[in-house]
Design brief:
binds FE2/S2 (inorganic) cluster, alpha+beta, about 10% helix, about 110 residues, Ubiquitin-like (UB roll)
Length: about 110
């Protein structure tokens, strides 16, 4: 499969450009979990409840739609959110995220 989806991720002061393809990972959290070691990231494995996969979206490609299910409730429990806050586990990996830029918000573990 051609890796035709690129996502830029900033974490621990470093920038990573990750390449993937439609369907390789279920969501952005799984992609980050697999490619970059981030302490205490993705604790609930994508259920959308823990908040440890909190990212700030620095650049969203046109056409990317964020799904607002459990995300809003979980983000409301975290203290360091802003209007660019999203849960990486609620961002699906498909062609719509090509060009996405995010920054991992460290220390977002909100507990259950
Ligand atoms: S992995 Fe727990 S909220 Fe995303």
């Amino acid at each position: 499969m051609k890796k035709d989806i690129k996502v830029t991720v900033r974490v621990y002061g470093q920038e990573h450009v990750l390449e993937t393809y439609d369907g390789e990972y279920r969501n952005l959290m799984m992609l980050l979990y697999d490619k970059i070691y981030i302490d205490e990231f993705g604790e609930c494995k994508g259920v959308g409840r823990c908040g440890t996969c909190h990212v700030h979206v620095l650049r969203a490609p046109a056409g990317l739609v964020f799904h607002d299910g459990v995300e809003h409730t979980t983000l409301s429990r975290l203290g360091n959110t802003n209007e660019t806050s999203h849960l990486a586990c609620q961002i699906m990996v498909d062609r719509h995220i090509n060009g996405l830029e995010v920054e991992v918000v460290e220390g977002s573990g909100g507990g259950y």
